[in-house]
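Batch job 17 of 40 flagged for manual review because the log was empty.
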Amino acid sequence: MHSDSQLIEMAGRQPAPFLWLLDQFHRRDDRLTPDAMRAIASGLRMPLADVYGTATFYHHLTLGNGSRSEPRVCTGPVCRLRGSEQWLADGTDAHPMACAGRCDIPVPVLQGDSTHRLTGSSLEPSDKGPLPVPNPGGLPECIFEHIRQPAQATYEGYTARDGFQALDMALDTGPDPLLQTLDDSGLAGRGGAGFPTGRKWRSVLEASGLPKTIICNADEGEPGCFKDRAILEYDPYAVLEGMILAAFATGAELGFIYLRYEYPELQVQLEGALTACRTAGLLGPTNKLGSDFDIHIRRGAGAYVCGEEGSLLNSLEGKHPFPRNRPPFPVTHGYLQKPTVVNNVETLAAVPHILRHGAEWYRDLGRGDLAGTKVISVSGDVQRPGNYEVPFGFPLSELLY
């Protein structure tokens, strides 16, 4: 167990130290104490009022006399159908929490870094969510192309099925053909805004200011949405390869995965995946890119608004996570006001597949004038809940029947 001074010293060697320190003190003390906030304020030379105001904004940080190990029960729409509110009303010492992104395996109960599943009146250890279900009609897939294969979540399994082949191709040809392929493919952001991915990356490449940063937004918070969790759970290296490709295309040297608080097991899994990539020379000093590009995980703390990119950036910087006024946009004024790519999990996971198969292949996956595919989370009063990858333009009447 590290002392206050040791944690502060370690934070001095970390990018985005504020979130890292909040998480470390919260874990160590089982809550965020006034002494911890004073130590953070002193160590980072921040006003104590700013530390307190920002920390209290995050509803998963336990302050006062509470404990982070006290159970938190999901009361999202699907879990309400399964009786979570009634269970809370029956006099338990649990706390309600908003949709926890596990609608395919309700009802989740979070206790510290452990996740359980409420079945009836008992708690059971929570397993992984089910593998993504093949789409109706067996249509071609992009992101889920290999996700159901054995050991796809391991480095060995990923590399056995063309993993990091797209990176090798990009290293041979250079950034411009990579960006042109993304432009031609029609890949647009899958987080909701739909901005062309190739244009975003090219804007960061051409922007002045260093260091440039790549951010994977893994803070999915929409009720009923759990697709990013499934991708990170069963095919994490596709996301990491997408981030590494983004770094190569833009010249970035810093990367973050902003991970949702409710996914503690994914933090452990992703740390292992990052270690494997460093061992393979894909990340860290003198990597295959010829740079020092590395990726760091920063765990959110339960603020829904942090899924919005401006709020996420402020959160990483240790500020109150309010949305930013735009313009300027993150491609020129992102993390620490430097050029930054912010893409969500699904977007990044698609990139290696597109570069391997080509732009035309990806465009042809869509229907009509729409390019590519979309992963849709289906849950609630249905027989086969799960994540389905379907062509863009796929009617809901064919998905829900």
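Reviewer: the log was empty due to a logging misconfiguration, but the result itself is present. The longest strand covers residues 114-119. Unflagging and moving on to job 18.
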